[in-house]
Design a protein that fits this description.
seven-stranded mixed β-sheet, 2 domains, disordered N terminus, binds zinc ion, single chain, 18 strands, Rossmann fold, Quinone Oxidoreductase, Chain A, domain 1, alpha/beta, six-stranded parallel β-sheet
């Protein structure tokens, strides 16, 4: 039986409340390709280094859709979806001293081991033992999730839940920018204006880097223009090109549109071969880099301590948990960010 209380009366009260781990919660699970349903699951128990988070919202992105549509395999069905989550700390483990019950947090959904050679070099995105939420481990689209405390970041107070769900994908952009070395006053092109592309454009604009984009789907292109980005014009080349479409034509044009000495950063996951003329790379002195998610802890630290100011402009589709099926079916066509509201912040039960 689930308890429901209107207000939080004391820390001790909250702790007692969330310790009812025999209670059940609702979660959104993929039952089969293209079909999600609400399922009941026990509220997870937490370890000494973990916290229990009452989830308030979860964003939907391209990799969730790849799972939903069956392009990316998951270990089992039913499979709990989602990885771009925010919530409120409901309980803390015995060793946790850095997080507090009632604190708002943004979750970092890739847990690196911090002891393999990649982690020791600082490139935790290459961790050999990486736990990927929603892909190798059940997702965050549930009323409660257990999370290692170090991977739950105190949320910037000024942002709403819908803005906070954009921080994880924004961190993907933050890491790509850091790895590119792009600086104020230079020109950059973003290929593709899906949510990753739009978030990159926001970051470029806020950092004073010339933000151009190419995007064939008009509603997304319109949104990019609304943000203040400029449409790529024929003949222009760029010092930095960020490929986010994950398509073969997008990847090919990214290489052609870099100017001599330029850097191409690939974020999109095109899985088919792309035509590259080595002489073009050599004569153009081009650098091609792959940018995989972000590195712990530096990139989430950067995003949460100095979040983008204009996130609200790209939030378009808000869905209740009951309408998750509709949310996943609509997300491809929604320009901007779709997200699922799991619960309001006020109630802790
Ligand atoms: Zn994502
Ligand atoms: Zn590692």
């Amino acid at each position: 039986m689930a308890f429901r209380f209107g207000a939080i009366e004391s820390d001790e009260f909250e702790r007692q409340l969330s310790r009812n781990t025999g209670d059940f919660m609702r979660a959104v699970a993929l039952i089969e390709t293209g079909k999600v349903e609400i399922v009941d699951r026990p509220i997870p128990a937490i370890g000494a280094d973990e916290i229990l988070v009452k989830v308030t919202g979860v964003g939907i992105c391209g990799s969730d859709l790849a799972v939903f549509e069956g392009h990316r395999e998951v270990p089992e069905y039913p499979w709990i979806m989602g990885h771009e989550a925010v919530g409120v700390v409901a309980e803390i483990g015995g060793n946790v001293t850095t997080r507090k019950v009632g604190q708002k947090v943004v979750l970092e959904p890739n847990y690196c081991c911090m002891h393999c050679s990649s982690c020791l070099s600082g490139a935790t995105s290459g961790c050999e033992n990486r736990v990927i939420i929603g892909m190798t481990t059940p997702g965050y689209l549930a009323e409660y999730v257990a999370v290692p405390a170090d991977f739950a970041w105190p949320a910037p107070a000024e942002l709403s839940t819908s803005e906070l769900v954009c921080l994880e994908p924004s961190t993907v952009g933050e890491a790509a920018l850091r790895r590119s070395g792009a600086k104020k006053g230079e020109l950059a092109l973003v290929v593709g204006a899906g949510s990753t592309g739009l978030l990159l454009l926001i970051l470029l604009l806020e950092k004073g880097i010339g933000a151009y984009f190419s995007e064939p789907y008009k509603p997304r292109a319109d949104l990019a223009v609304e943000l203040g980005a400029k449409i790529h014009d024929e003949g222009r080349q760029y010092q930095y090109v960020f490929e986010t479409s994950g398509s073969v034509p997008g990847s090919e044009s990214a290489i052609h549109l870099a100017r001599p000495g330029g850097t191409i950063v690939l974020l999109g996951l095109a899985t088919e071969p792309v035509k590259i003329v080595p002489a073009e790379i050599v004569r153009g002195r081009l650098t091609i880099k792959g940018s995989m998610i972000y590195d712990h802890p530096q990139d989430f630290f950067a995003t949460t301590s100095n979040p983008p100011k204009t996130l609200s402009k790209i939030i378009r589709g808000e869905f209740a948990m009951e309408n998750a099926q509709r949310a996943f079916m609509a997300a491809r066509d929604v320009a901007g960010k779709s997200w699922i509201s799991v619960s309001s912040e006020g109630e802790l039960a």
